[in-house]
Amino acid sequence: MQPIRNASVSEDDAALKQVTLKKEPTGEWFATFGVEMDHELPEPPENPEQCVGIDVGILKYAHDTDGAAIGSLDLSDERERLEREQRKLSRKQHGSNNYEKQRRRVAECHADLRRKRRDFLHKLSNYYAREYDFVAVEDLNVKGMMDSPSNSRNRASAAWRTFLSLLEYKCKREGTHFVMVNPRGTTKECAACGVSTDKPLWVREHSCPACGFEADRDANAAWNILSRGLEDIGVGHSESTSSESPCDSDGLRKSRSDFRTPVETALPTDTDSVSAKRVVEAGSPTLNERTASAVSE
């Protein structure tokens, strides 16, 4: 019998409770160990200093209030390979040995897509949970969005619900505040003055007709998400994580008089575009190596 490869490091205080065996469509067997560890989760800080709002999307997977725009994971080569193998499978005689071999190849393609997507999501969620004291995201109705025929495939590939679930449990593990806010109007609403303006999807810049505030539309949404999150949970924080925040030290919108001119406060010039490949390879989207410990788990 071959030895079992263990994907995690065992803890000295971990008590083994159950073992679950599962055979994947690829023919591989996996053993899942359920353990109980005798230690308490850290408490989130009363006054978080590093706060971030995250807006997820399709063109960019995530846009945060620190100015990082994380690219979506490019799995086009993997999808093309899957489609080729599926076409080959359709030409095989059902029940034959050749059909079974080809079915496993298709299953391996599905598994490859799933593993690469989850690897990206694990590393990105781990970064935010470790880097920040407070994380705010939208409480998205992903199922309802899947029912819409527009971009349903891209939304399914984005796996937003998986990302949010991973982010939630990792924030609990790290002692980070995690808040999900009502997503209604986060894109339309001006992060500076609160005035709502309709924008078609192809308009990628927010330009407020009331106060003149200009920003990338996703950056504007991220600031609204952070502001709502801080209001919902009712915590204070000592400083903003961005030099051009449209919110004051209590997470509330500044008045128009608190802003400089729109040219000086425009956020797109401060946006750092980060490829998904960097997240996968480095385990972190940060460009200034602020936190070297944000690695995959």
UniProtKB/TrEMBL annotation:
One of its GO terms (molecular function) is DNA binding. Residues 250-261 have a biased composition (Basic and acidic residues). Residues 35-147 form the Probable transposase IS891/IS1136/IS1341 domain. Pfam families: Cas12f1-like_TNB, OrfB_IS605. Residues 285-297 have a biased composition (Polar residues). Residues 84-103, 236-297 are annotated as: Disordered. GO terms for biological process: DNA recombination; transposition. Residues 160-225 form the Cas12f1-like TNB domain. Keywords: DNA recombination, DNA-binding, Transposition. In the C-terminal section; belongs to the transposase 35 family. This is Transposase, is605 orfb family, central region. It comes from Natrialba magadii (strain ATCC 43099 / DSM 3394 / CCM 3739 / CIP 104546 / IAM 13178 / JCM 8861 / NBRC 102185 / NCIMB 2190 / MS3).
